[in-house]
């Protein structure tokens, strides 16, 4: 299956009225993604299908047939890539700083931030909203327990920071 509307935008009447080609709906895209999952799909093919489905604002019921389909490109801790079912544990990077902080230490959906945003509606319909890093990570702000400033520690810190800064400039 291929989206011919993007390749021949001026010929939509020809395809729809004369040839009788059905206009794609969400169920057609979901069926196509399910069929694609049975093969050895490429990441870009999966991504495109997910974007098309997301543009149609799927519901949980719409994507129910994909419950056990291998449709999620996942990057493993060791850097290897695989295609997984939603039951496999992986996180979805939705903030750049979290992606940088956890790179190489957890399994993540192998999409860029922009791709995650484009597929957001489908990911949420699949019940993966709790896997977004912004939901998984708790930021803790620390404050000093001493009210007095330790002059010796402050001087040592300033010296180390200066040395690191000088090294980073080179």
Could you describe the 3D structure shown?
- The protein is mainly α and 170 residues long.
- It has one domain.
- It has helices at 12-18, 26-37, 43-55, 96-102, 113-118, 120-125, 133-136, 151-169, and strands spanning 72-75, 81-84, 108-109.
- It has a three-stranded antiparallel beta sheet, with no helix packed on it.
- α2 packs antiparallel against α3 (43-55).
- The longest helix is centred in the C-terminal third of the chain and has 19 residues, at 151-169.
- The radius of gyration is 23 Å and the shape is elongated.
- 19% of the residues are buried.
Per DSSP E runs of 2 or more residues, the count of β-strands stands at 3
- Main β-sheet description: 3 strands, antiparallel
Number of continuous helical runs: 8
How are the strands of the largest sheet arranged?
A: 2-1-3
The residue-averaged pLDDT reads: 87
Give a quick precis of the structure.
With 170 residues, the protein is mainly alpha-helical. Helices cover 44% and strands 6% of the residues. The longest helix is centred in the C-terminal third of the chain and has 19 residues.
SSE layout:
Elements: H1 12-18, H2 26-37, H3 43-55, E1 72-75, E2 81-84, H4 96-102, E3 108-109, H5 113-118, H6 120-125, H7 133-136, H8 151-169
Antiparallel strand pairs: 1-2, 1-3
List keywords for this structure.
single chain, 170 residues, 3 strands, mainly alpha, 3-stranded antiparallel β-sheet, 44% helix, 8 helices
């Amino acid at each position: 299956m291929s989206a011919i509307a993007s390749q021949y935008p001026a010929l939509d009447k020809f395809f729809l009225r004369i040839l009788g080609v059905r206009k794609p709906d969400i169920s057609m895209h979901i069926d196509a993604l399910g069929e694609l999952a049975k093969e050895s799909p490429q990441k870009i093919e999966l991504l495109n299908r997910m974007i098309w489905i997301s543009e149609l604002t799927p519901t949980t019921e719409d994507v129910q047939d994909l419950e056990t389909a291998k449709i999620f490109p996942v990057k493993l801790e060791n850097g290897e890539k695989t295609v997984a079912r939603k039951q496999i544990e992986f996180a979805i990077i939705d903030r750049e700083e979290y992606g940088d902080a956890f790179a190489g230490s957890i399994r993540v959906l192998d999409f860029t931030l922009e791709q995650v945003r484009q597929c957001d509606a489908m990911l949420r319909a699949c019940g993966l909203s709790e896997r977004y890093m912004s939901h998984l990570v708790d930021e803790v702000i620390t404050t000093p327990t001493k009210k007095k400033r330790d002059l010796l520690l402050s001087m040592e810190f300033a010296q180390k920071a200066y040395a690191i800064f000088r090294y980073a400039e080179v």
